[in-house]
Amino acid sequence: MPAAPQSTAPIGVFDSGVGGLTVLHELLVALPQEDFLYLGDCARFPYGDRAPAELQAFSRQIADVLLERGAKLIVVACNSATSSALEHLAAYVAEGGHAVDVIGVVGPESNLAVARTRNGRIGVLATPATVASGAYERAVLASDPLVKLTTVACPQLARISQDGAPITEDDVDLARTYCGPLREAGVDTAILGCTHYPFVGALLQRLLGPQVTLITSGTAIARRVQHALSTRELATPRSGEGRYSFLCTGDAAAFVEVGSRFLQLPMAAVEQIELPTEVPA
Amino acid sequence: MPAAPQSTAPIGVFDSGVGGLTVLHELLVALPQEDFLYLGDCARFPYGDRAPAELQAFSRQIADVLLERGAKLIVVACNSATSSALEHLAAYVAEGGHAVDVIGVVGPESNLAVARTRNGRIGVLATPATVASGAYERAVLASDPLVKLTTVACPQLARISQDGAPITEDDVDLARTYCGPLREAGVDTAILGCTHYPFVGALLQRLLGPQVTLITSGTAIARRVQHALSTRELATPRSGEGRYSFLCTGDAAAFVEVGSRFLQLPMAAVEQIELPTEVPA
Do residues B271 and B248 touch, judged by C-beta distance below 8 A? Predict the structure, then answer.
């Protein structure tokens, strides 16, 4: 049996690259006292077109690294890995004898949206792959089968503003098109179902109107993490700010350069690591 | 008597330069249906060291321009102009026979902070000039004399991150120093008393902790504007997004380049204007 996780250990977070750093950003703001260890699997980016078995193998490899470094909880900050591998990974971690929770995207946002809505009409903006997976639909309707869900695939939304370039009129027109069905449906709650969308959160809020509550992955996950740690009595005893550091399977310099824009906080400690190239079936 | 303001007219907003665009950003998000006309007095930037009589004259000139273009309400999105000229300007506008409200910074944030605090301990982060003016102290204590106020002058905070450069470890250390007295005082509400501070809002939230409510100028002003328009029955009848445009006394190209980072929305229409160089006493 592996050693029991420690309350002073870091929370592990992973993604295929820098996208999950917007989730880490919100975790660092919501849970400032905790330590975090982020792994960006940049060498194998993107995860979007990978087969489920492949993403399950990648997730196992990454979890092994995070657990070896003592992670007391694992956050899957990636829509593709969550859709294809969350349950698989949670079972893998549990079978390894680790008393470690595995929390993904989708579930926490869906729960929070159901808790927040007053008129029962919830919108989801997500990538075409995520929409096609039906993951938000299943999660929201599992929480509340009476919710009227409006889901919009937004093929171009993730690229707006994430490179630091100013938002253009064309970007606004594009975002307005995506928001149209949500406005028509009269949603009072909208899930931003992609880790890149916080970059355009203010724009979406303007287009949807101030009466709509936006739910981002990071905020929703932060609450879930807090519950999970509390249940296992694993919340850090620290009261000041925790530390955070990074592992990266690709080029560390490029990871820092792009990543700083996503994290909006300094990225001092980045360690480059290699994962086995031969992926077990 | 000038014509009565129209509900379809724009809300005028002014500042000495681009700083007030963070206020406009929040107004555009909170009141998306309204039109806005922003005047950046870049040619006479900065206002910080100007005499009160000078700022009163500048404010009158700017109000004349905004009123001529039909502004139905004027927002002074600048701490220096608010401290030195708000009451003067409101009287000038009223004496001119305009049924137009003039709303500045300081008052709305102070009210909102008093409304939000539960433990009666409020913090203020602001520039040395604003702290020296005692404006937040007067406004907060006028709303609630029992509040325990902790005010910190932050000489370097406005420059962090506003040029788009990544936040450094030194920046974090600096911000942590400024937050120290607020943490020690156990404030549950903190006023960001400078239009540039929204750039470091997430960093300050992390350093102060999630239990602290941050109050920014824009959010607080948006509520006040909404009340004022509602009282005078001047809220726009429109339900979609309004338009916004810009006047600038300095170089329009430079204003757009820097301003886009502050506004985080497109800045299409900028008109360069000249204000009288001979300032009446």
Answer: yes
The alpha-carbon gap from B75 to the nearest alpha carbon of chain A, in Å, equals 19
Token pair 């328009």 is at which residue? B229
Disruptive mutation site among B34, B171, B205, B206 for chain A (greatest number of A CBs within 10 Å): B206
**Cβ pair A31:B266 closer than 8 A:** no
Distance (Å) of CA B137 to CA B47, B125, B216: 21, 12, 16
Residue B78 is among the residues annotated as catalytic for this protein: yes
CB within 8 Å: A25 and B209: no
Long-range contacts of B225-231 (CB under 8 A, 24+ apart): B225/B11, B225/B27, B225/B31, B225/B73, B225/B75, B225/B103, B226/B30, B226/B31, B228/B73, B228/B101, B228/B103, B229/B7, B229/B11, B229/B34, B229/B72, B229/B73
Mean pLDDT of chain B: 94
A54, A247 in Cβ contact below 8 A?
no
The token pair at A247 is: 């592992």
Domain ranges of chain A: 11-104+219-272, 107-217
Q: Give the residue from chain B lying closest to A219, CA to CA.
A: B210
Across the interface, whether the CB atoms of A32 and B169 are under 8 A apart is answered no
Same fold, A11-104+219-272 and A107-217: yes
Tell me how crowded residue B134 is: count the other CB atoms within 10 A of its CB. 12
Task: Give the model's pLDDT for residue A239.
Answer: 86
Looking at residue A278, what is its pLDDT?
63
Instruction: Please state which architecture CATH assigns to domain A11-104+219-272.
Output: 3-Layer(aba) Sandwich (3.40)
Fold (CATH) for B107-217: Rossmann fold (3.40.50)
Spans of chain A, pLDDT less than 70:
278-281
The mean-pLDDT minimum among A162-166, B86-90, B148-152 falls in A162-166
- Report the sign of the C-alpha dihedral through residues B213, B217, B219, B224, in that order: positive
A31-40, A125-134, B36-45, B60-69: least confident range? A125-134
- CB A266 to CB B172 under 8 A? yes
Considering the entire predicted model, what is its pTM?
Answer: 0.94
Calculate Rg over the CA atoms of chain B: 18
